[in-house]
Amino acid sequence: MSRLITSFDPWKSRICTCPAKYSLNPYTGCDHRCLYCYSTYIPNFFSARPKKLLLTRLERELKNLPENALISMSNSSDPYPPMERDMGLTRNVLRQISEKNLRLLVITKSDIVARDADILKNMRAAVSITVTTLDEDVAGKMEPNAPEPERRIRALKRLKKAGISVILRLDPVMPKINDENFEEVLERASFVDHVVSSTLKLRGDSYSRIVKEFPELKEHYRRLYFREGERLGGSWYLGRDLRVKLLSGVAEKCEELGISYAFCREGIPFKAGSCDGSHLIA
Ligand code: SF4
To answer: Whose CA is closest to atom 8 on ligand 1?
Structure first.
């Protein structure tokens, strides 16, 4: 059986600025079905299923991690799919990690994570929740099975109130979808400790899903990505000037609100202690 905890290596991306960390996914696949998801190279991806023998394998593998190691959960799925509400698998993962002297960065798009504040507040942990828009219609199209944006904001608030460092993941910023209203997301979440943002990167299947839902963007995206954009690490990026322009808007708003910010896999400098917010974990 393959290893459960692996070194984080995002396709050997030369513009990834992440610190050395390990990757842990309690589930394979994800039910949230985001149109822009980058993980669909995994078979049957939009159907989450728990990893086999998860807790037994985890116990064995945690013993081999160096003290103080940073675990990122999760990078290629969501640790809080809807079934986690009843199953509590990720909750048990937290319990096991909490017994070791390890650092944990939780990355999710679900408010279920707030349920686990009682464990997380006693861990060396931070929680990153993605919110791309407050517009329920747009979120319903882009992230059809993820909890509504307001629920995610409330979860961030609850975790912060419990004394846990919280990160807003404003990712991706998508031309003509959320690039004109992301400021309101930052305003609503201005209590967070850090923001990480990134522009939409496309692969063939995510392009098809997006233009199927937003047919009016087909030609526009074709031009921005495939004619004027650039190919980096297996994905299509917007042209650099447009990426700088969009992310400068995020930077300016964060500076106005006094929030630390960084960019993910953009090749654009930032001042924060880390891109992913792991600098918040003592
Ligand atoms: S929550 Fe993350 S892993 Fe799940 S479908 Fe959306 S982008 Fe993919």
So the answer is: 37
